[in-house]
Hints:
By secondary structure, this protein is α/β, with parallel strands linked by helices. It is 45% helix and 14% strand. The strands form 6 sheets. An 8-stranded mixed β-sheet has the order 9-8-10-11-21-20-18-15, covered by helices on one side. Strands 5-4-3-6-7 form a 5-stranded mixed β-sheet. The radius of gyration is 34 Å and the shape is elongated. The two termini are 30 Å apart.
Amino acid sequence: MKTIYRIAKTELNTMFYSPVAWVVLVIFSIQSSWKFFDTLERFEKGQKIGQHMDNLSQILFSGFSGLFTEMQNYLYLYVPLLTMGLISREINSGSIKLLLSSPIKIKDIVLGKFLAIASYCLLFIAILGILAGVAYFSIDNLDIKFVLSGLIGLYLLVCTYAAIGLFMSCLTSYQVVAAISTLVVLAGLNFIGKLWQGVEYVKDITYFLSISGRANEMIEGLIVSKDVFYFVLVSSLFIVLSIYKLQTGRDAQTTSTRVLKYTVLVIVVLSLGYITSRAPLSVYFDMTKTKSRTLTKNSLDVVDKIDGPIKITTYVNLLDINYYMVMPYSQNQDISSFEKYSRFLPQMEMEYVYYYDTSNNAALYAQNPGLNDKQLAQKMVETQNLKLKKLYSPAEISKIIDLKPEQNRVVRTVEYNGKKTFLRMFDDMFKIPMEKEISAALKRLVVSPPKIVFVTGNMERSVDKNGDKNYKTGFNEVSFRYSLINQGFDVSSVDINAQNIPDQTTILIIADPKTQLSQGAIDRINKYIDQGKNLMLLAEPETNSTLTAVTDKLGLSFTRQSLVQESGDNSPDYLVTEFAQSIDSAVIKLNKTKNPIPFLGSSGIKTAKNAGFTVTPLLKTNKQPAWESPTGINTISADLKKQSSFSEMPLAVALTRNINGKSQKIIVSGDADFMGNAELSRGGSGTFQFVTDIFTWFSNYQFPIDTTRPENTDNHIAVNANQVFISKLLFIGLFPILIILGGAFILIRRNRR
């Protein structure tokens, strides 16, 4: 060990007697300081003009343009300049012969050289650490452990670069060639993860070898054992390769012996890398303050209930617009998107099934006129050079699973303990399911999911149609992430005039029937209410009389006509509602957003008699007067103003009572449009949150899964513009000058000696 230390010390002295080490250090300090203070200055200005600041630790150091992310992209440029002369300088000067003929062991030489460059790389981390220290005094409640995780990741990365550069320096006597060769190898390791991703088994090896983004998890605050093992194994591989290469100059070995040594070394490293990257053997350390890199408590509660194998099967239609996300070459990346779960469910198995069938991919059919589905699929296979074990035809896939209700989209099934549920892809920016959707799918397999049943038979609103007034968006749209069918609920319909209400019904919804309910329908609804089950009634002013038999049983009544109010911008029947002040959170929990929840053409709700329910108003008109009026008026006339008016009239109420040993929950609304496709798609509205809260209440707060996290506290910059400017001058101007002066002093002193 003393020999290794002496060699490292000598090598460090040699490095610092060269201007290259000082120049690299100056450039790195200027570049990192410039990036850091430029971002800090921008946020300070934003805070000054009132912009909301949040999660500043992550934004400043990681993310798309954080300090650590940016510097990670440049480290590979610095290291070859430092490592190019480690061994090649000895080879070029001839001193390598003296080293090899000396009693010093070759491994001591190599390890000493590596220790020297690893020690130098600590200076990079020290500079970034100093900037982190500035951030500590500049940002309230900086997440120190998060920043430390990023520093660890960058140091492991730069040491791996150094090991690669050390080996390349062993191959040539020309330092420039060693530097260029190092860049080529690093480029290859960045690119190799994209090679042969369609070839079984080989794709796992090349994916493991890829160094691209390998430090990202640590920069984002999650230390994963497989990434640490990767850096250690790859560094060890190139260090041992360096030892083997130098031994060829001392030991007489046959070519076959050398080939065998190299082959065994590579096989051992790849085997260890593959084994340590498997989910059951991976260990995770979430370094973030809010544990943002780990599942939330509610998701962990779901995972804890799973005890046994779980299988996720992805059905990939080559003709669907999202096919590319789960092609063989994308499978490793797709599997990594479930890593938050596989770390807790190592028994999770993922399978991919490929088929072709008619899809909604209109662009594909328009670009290939005259081709049928089979011809299109063959074209996709040929143009993308796909190597598929099996491509199922429509007839073959239909024998396995019926995907017609899923519109033949790319979709997954999750199977556990004999149960199966769908996990879908979505038509938004992210496409893949996130924690809310995955946890909801898993929870459906361990508890009975709530079943929403819509009444039909009297021209009610439809959950299968896209019109403005229908309900498909919020309940039954497979491509919409927040549709309740994707948040854990079952959604179906029943013809109330001809069929009994299913026994498994959790929530029965009667949405704006246009014709009178039959006596059979009323009897079925009354029986359902008497059983103590949950109900939702949605009416419109013109047709609310069709629900009189039901509202009488509940002790409520609707105003006969629509409520209208004076408004400077909207039509009179556009009511901007307010939350009732007396909502008891023990009855129902609502997120009272500041965004308006408009009701377009709504009846008011009155309590007609005591029917045994506790009535809790949820939404009401504001304090301005409201009058009853026929729908369709453009202005409120003077005659209408002379009529009696209402103030703070309830528009949506909750009814509760204890019956048959459980709590019965009922929602009654004087407007059926507020849950329609148009209103749920309205920008800047709080309607969607209100609807979500209602069904969370109906499901006893089991669905949708609440994946909210504690609020970040690092949301305030504690320095002003002058302090940022002075710090910027010190770190970009004075600090590099001090490094230059220190380097000049050492170099001049060396030359004098």
